[in-house]
Description:
Helix content is 37%, strand content 13%. With 278 residues, the chain is of the alpha/beta class. It is globular and about 65 Å long. The two termini are 27 Å apart.
Amino acid sequence: MLEYLLSDVQALTGQEYGLLAKLGIVLLHPGLHSVVFYRVSRWFYLHGMSAVSLVVNYLSAALTGAQISHRARIGKGLVVYHPHGIVVGAEAVLGNHCRLVHGVVIGQMHGGGDRPQIGDRLYAATGAKLLGRIRVGSNVRVGPNAVVTKSMPDNVVVAGNPGRIVGRRGHPAAAAGKPAPGFRDATLLERLAELIKRSVDRASTSEVHAHTPLLGDGVGLDSLDVLRLINEIEEEFGLTIDDGVLKPEHLADVSSLAAFVKEQMRHEQQPRDFRHAR
Length: 278
């Protein structure tokens, strides 16, 4: 259990620089606490103490708002950002390094234990639902409020209700191998403008520059466009961007988005191992 807990903590605190910031997350992050409750409950369950396990499950639901069954099998590096409304049912299977945001449900559709089996590196955005006896591959990103009731292959972006494939993701090992790009601002803006044209059909024939608005009367991005664009940015720059850190102000115009991407690149280059913390 300890090995899994250490992996969970490092997955959440990896982008924080400094021991004090990491410690603050460990002590005050309810999402991490819901993961700790699950690991403890699972340990009791596997050691034949089901009654104690159920009590720990109840405490987790009462204190954090997350209901993660002790019978679910979840790999290392689980991250829960906002635990309220998260449900992972009994017998569900999740691989390593999965990330869940607010209101995610992974559970039954018809009853009788028909729960999903999911590979490594799932990213399930706010309100995502994965239901029924389905298999979902590794490195899959499920968009906000998507409802997935059919099996999905590796390396895809899924959105909508019913969930459908709207994009592809490169293998994470390839992204991890990219050198950290040291773009000048003008080059970064140009790169982003090309990505926007490529991701959004209605922008493909328009002039996109630093002050082009991305919402409303500008490019007019909707939630699906944003999902596609973020996926393209992740692939282009070798980043992993969590939906929770992207705010409407980051999409005010292309220059705002460029500043956001530059900040994410800076975080990506910071030390991610406890041994480097000062």
